[in-house]
Write a structure and sequence with these properties.
The chain has one helix and five strands. The chain has 121 residues and is mostly loops. The protein has a single domain, classed as E3 ubiquitin-protein ligase SopA (Pectate Lyase C-like). Strands 3-4-5 form a three-stranded mixed sheet, with no helix packed on it. Strands 1-2 form a two-stranded parallel sheet. Strand 1, helix 1 and strand 2 form a beta-alpha-beta unit. The N and C termini lie far apart (30 Å). The relative contact order is 0.14.
Length: 121
């Protein structure tokens, strides 16, 4: 996986995404191929964000709103996703080893199981 270092201010990036979601300008969050290892994103609104192949290893993402987010191919090894709302998120090809998913909402999420993609009922 080729990743680039996140050169942007995380708070400014999240604020712009929040404005986008509220229809008040801003920009949709796109963390494709970026490195956000260990960043505290707890309780962030990341709904509909694109994070394809992002390195989110060890991130604190508990309580995040990730509904409909594209997390395909992300490295979420050791990430704390407890209590996160992942309904309708795309998690196919993610490394979820040692990730904490207690109380996470996964209905409608797409995961890779073996060689197959599975939508959680």
């Amino acid at each position: 996986m080729t990743t680039t270092t996140a050169l942007v201010d995380p708070m400014a990036t999240l604020t712009a995404h929040t404005l986008y979601l509220a229809g008040r300008g801003g920009t949709r969050l796109d963390l494709t191929n970026t490195d956000w290892r260990g960043v505290n994103l707890s309780n962030a609104n990341l709904k509909m964000a694109t994070m394809t192949r992002a390195n989110l290893r060890g991130c604190d993402m508990h309580g995040c709103d990730l509904r409909g987010a594209n997390l395909r191919g992300c490295d979420l090894h050791g990430a704390d996703l407890s209590g996160a709302d992942l309904r309708g998120a795309y998690l196919s090809g993610c490394d979820l080893s040692d990730a904490m998913l207690s109380r996470a909402k996964l209905r409608g999420a797409v995961l890779t199981v073996g060689n197959s993609q599975v939508r959680v009922a």
